[in-house]
From TrEMBL:
One of its GO terms (molecular function) is hydrolase activity. The lineage of its organism: Eukaryota, Viridiplantae, Streptophyta, Embryophyta, Tracheophyta. One of its GO terms (biological process) is mRNA processing. One of its GO terms (cellular component) is spliceosomal complex. It comes from Escallonia herrerae. Residues 233-413 form the Helicase C-terminal domain. Keywords: ATP-binding, Helicase, Hydrolase, mRNA processing, mRNA splicing, Nucleotide-binding, Spliceosome. Its EC number is 3.6.4.13. Belongs to the DEAD box helicase family. DEAH subfamily. PRP16 sub-subfamily. This is RNA helicase. The keyword ATP-binding applies. It catalyses: ATP + H2O = ADP + phosphate + H(+). Residues 48-211 form the Helicase ATP-binding domain. It is an enzyme of class 3 (hydrolase).
Amino acid sequence: HGEIDFKEDAQFARHLEKEEVVSDFAKSKTLAQQRQYLPIFSVRDVLMQVIRENQVVVVVGETGSGKTTQLTQYLHEEGYTRNGVVGCTQPRRVAAMSVAKRVSKEMETKLGDTVGYAIRFEDVTGPNTVIKYMTDGVLLRETLKDRDLDRYSVIVMDEAHERSISTDVLFGILKKVVARRRDFKLIVTSATLNAEKFSSFFGSAQVFTIPGRTFPVQITYSKTPSEDYVEAAVKQAMKIHITSAPGDILIFLTGQDEIEAACYALSERMEQLASNTKQAVSQLLILPIYSQLPADLQAKIFQKAEDGVRKCVIATNIAETSLTVDGIFYVIDSGYAKMKVYNSRMGMDALQVFPVSRAAANQRAGRAGRTGPGTCYRLYTECAFENELLPSPVPEIQRTNLGNVVLLLKSLKVENLLDFDFMDPPPQENILNSMYQLWILGALDNVGNLTDLGWKMVEFPLDPPLAKMLLMGELLGCLEELLTIVSMLSVPSVFFRPKDRAEESDAAREELLVPESDHLTLLNIYQTWTARQFRGDWCNNHFLNLKGLLKAREVRSQLLDILKTLKIPIMSCGCNKDTVRKAVCSAYFQNAARLKGIREYENCRSGMPCHLHPSSALYASGLTREYVVYHEVILTTKEYMQCATIVEPHWLADLGPMFFSMKDTDTSLLARKKICKEEKTVMEEEMENFRKLPEEVERK
Ligand code: ADP
Ligand code: MG
């Protein structure tokens, strides 16, 4: 049981039946009543008994059955919080925040008091917090400080089926905690039925299934592959709204851009419809949800629409299992999602659009059958579903860069990463490649141990190159400046460019540009904002996102705290901004590019073309120099460099000697190069011990 029932031809959706269910829900029950209505409530006592009797329990239940919001509360009611915190991990930040908010409301306490959450750079917990929601990344970092997680009496590893990289590493670490601490409980929850794998990883742990309460979902496929699924989704939603019985709509697209485009198109068509028809058209409440959406707007998707208004939620795969919106009767599935995948050509992880797996598609469809029989419109053909989709998603650990994981595990004294207890070990090439990248950054020495720099880098919740860049600020005497730049790079872009005021906003941005560097531009913006007493009207006038800047300030103060605990003095380089560019260069020399044509560069190592983005300071200034380094490449219509800075060629030879040489007779430089080359040979031999090296390493 618990499986979605896909009845193609059930005679469901009888108008009356549906209206009944909808209004039943709309007559807002009290929160306590809502809690008792959840499927998990009916098995509460048995489940608590199973948990009492077993140290590790795998809990399987349909999405929306109450695992995330109820389990922690039950554990609290049963007394598990008397001598420790009940922690619950989420792969997504949005879910951690939103669920903590919901639970604090159900428990009638202020968020951050009994119930709190922690995500990277944001800790909303207090001394009273006994139920703590957090991202799996946050808990993973906590294991660095407290190997046995002594603060916690129970950890609920939620959404384990998502198989995020941090969850996968936590599996291995928590298995050891379970063995060492008899008083510790581990609960692993999954929305899918392949829980056997989790169970056997923990030595045949007890599996508990929450009986499902789902309704049949009728699946409709497109007859032909659709060329533009955003447009197809908008059309389908309008058709449902005009011709079908009440019930809310949920559309799955891949990201912010598509979601905004769909929202815009839908509201336009609703306006047209209203002006073209004499009869009153019932309202459509259009609600986007994606991870970068401000929290107050995110909360809106859960609110009940007024009578006679239909809700249309347009979401990324965040609504697949992490968040449950009640009252959905229609799902429109584009069949695609963005996934982070290591792109060997770019030499880094890139978010790219991929077809979803069959398991994910079925999860999406299931969203329509929670409150009554529903319909799912798949915007792809049945043939594509059967033949082109993978049965289940590839775990993140097998497809992304492992730099952070390697650093973390090394600092946990896992000597040989190939020995770590992974549920599904990452490909060896992946580990070796990540080790190699850490080595060129100077975080690992020639035999693969953490260097002093590496040990310091572990302290920062940043990707290795960013951490290195920050710490180079210490060496080069410009930490003050780097601190700001790293913080600005850790928040979403602060630039704001409304379609109808594009020129005006471009002009305002140009005032703040530093011609030779986007990094220095970010610094300039932050410094100017600081000089304006962090004022919001200044941001508005310059088309900058105040919330983004505030977030950067928050990140900055947290990084500053870490630097203080490490007793690293903060120095400023004053007007000598070249040192800042040097620090950027020292951490991003793998991303060095050479000028090829007008505003066109190519990566020095891989030859991948990369273009200046129109929003770049270098683009606007027209300044052309032979070499730049960039923060990352984003793939849209072309490969665009995101955040680029002009560098001197001899910096590349100095700071990234394993890649670059100068046709120069400078002996000291040559001597240094020779040493580096020798070191590289040693490292290569060392890695050879594991296996043949990745192709990348052999290329100079
Ligand atoms: P599961 O984890 O099993 O998928 P949840 O505990 O997340 O289930 O959800 C249980 C119920 O709580 C759902 O009906 C969902 O709609 C509701 N819920 C969860 N979060 C919120 C929220 N932020 N606002 C309103 N309702 C919510
Ligand atoms: Mg959940």
